[in-house]
Amino acid sequence: MPRAFLVVIDSVGIGGAPDADRFFNGDLPDTGANTLAHIAAECAAGRAEAGRSGPLHLPTMDGMGAAIRIASGTDAGLPNHPTGLHGAATEVSPGKDTPSGHWEIAGVPVPWDWHYFPDTQPAFPPDLTAQVCKLAGTKGILGNCHASGTAILADLGAEHMRTGWPICYTSADSVFQIAAHEETFGLDRLLDLCQAVAPLVHAMKVGRVIARPFVGTPEAGFTRTQNRHDYAIAPPSPTLCDWAQAAGRRVHAVGKIGDIFSMRGIDKVRKGTDAQLMQHLSDLVDQAEDGSLTFANFVEFDSLYGHRRDVSGYARHLEWFDSELAKLLPRLRDGDLLLITADHGNDPTWSGTDHTRERTPVLGYGVGKRDIGNVMFTDIAASIAAHLGIPAQGPGKSFL
Ligand SMILES: O=P(O)(O)O[C@H]1O[C@H](CO)[C@@H](O)[C@H]1O
Ligand SMILES: [Mn+2]
Ligand SMILES: [Mn+2]
Q1: Does pTM surpass 0.80?
Q2: Which residues, in sequence order, are CB contacts of 196 under 8 Å at separation 6+?
Q3: What are the residues facing 345 on neighbouring strands?
Q4: How far is the CA of 391 from the centre of ligand 2 (A)?
Q5: Could you tell me the fold of the domain covering 4-111+236-388?
Q6: Which class would CATH give 126-232?
């Protein structure tokens, strides 16, 4: 029985979203944002030389050049000799966030408008703040604003250690993020707090509460740990994961897929750094059951490089991923399909620190060379379902 591996390289957009003008980073619309093309251009110009050098080199993902031209008509200077399936996918959900992107890739566009906290200070309504304080057992919260998660630790980490108040912040995404020190505040206490706050903000149609534990001292600085946990609102209707499970197939989640889908339709989760996730994916190529679905998310493109506007780092991570993929592909079995895509953009050359609305690449291995052109996010779910031979739901059409 054929197996499917659906791999999301988080935030690797390729421009061209028809509705980019409706999404913003600060005051600037996302029109023209193009994560991969702009990274490739910076590399070609010799401006992304930290820990790597020269033009962006992605020989395994050899369909990227073609995908980017399909999405945005841009010549990013990437070679255009695709050997596998290649195309570009367009999102319709009214959000450029991770759950919107993943649910739609899994066949379910978001049917509601997310609630976003305003970019004001305070950002949160007083009654929500009061409830968070009550649940945390503190007299106040710190932050209460839009912020970059690393910058706010530098600003408020010391005050947090002194007062014991949780650092609460948001972004252009529909999120409520709580940062707290793993030792002085306590990791379990932070996770319990986030879990308790989640239903309050989900009721407001805020997509996620994210626990952002950190360690360190005011003197040495603060760093976030791997114990991040997302408490997401459940998908509005059954997704590819549920379709597969209902058909009696095993569903493996690698990375934060379990969190994004509120564990709906998922049998087993493997987590870690992207390097560890690559090992998990590699193990699953060897071990995943016939007929199974493996759904992976590699988040560090987004969290370590996109939001941090680090072009060299992003290019390095793309080249690392590409070289790891080269070791993985020859071990796929006959009948396997491995599909690579992304959930939104996060152009590290763009203004602000938020995601960018973009089309995303669709690269397929194991089904021969074909140009699928422009497809919709939901077509990915329909295609995976067709490949696995299971019934699909919703608006997607298979491109296989
Ligand atoms: O700046 P950090 O804390 O990494 O937060 C980013 O991560 C969140 C989830 O992807 C986004 O909403 C953005 O705010
Ligand atoms: Mn994402
Ligand atoms: Mn992000």
Answers
A1: yes
A2: 135
A3: 356
A4: 27
A5: Alkaline Phosphatase, subunit A (3.40.720)
A6: alpha beta
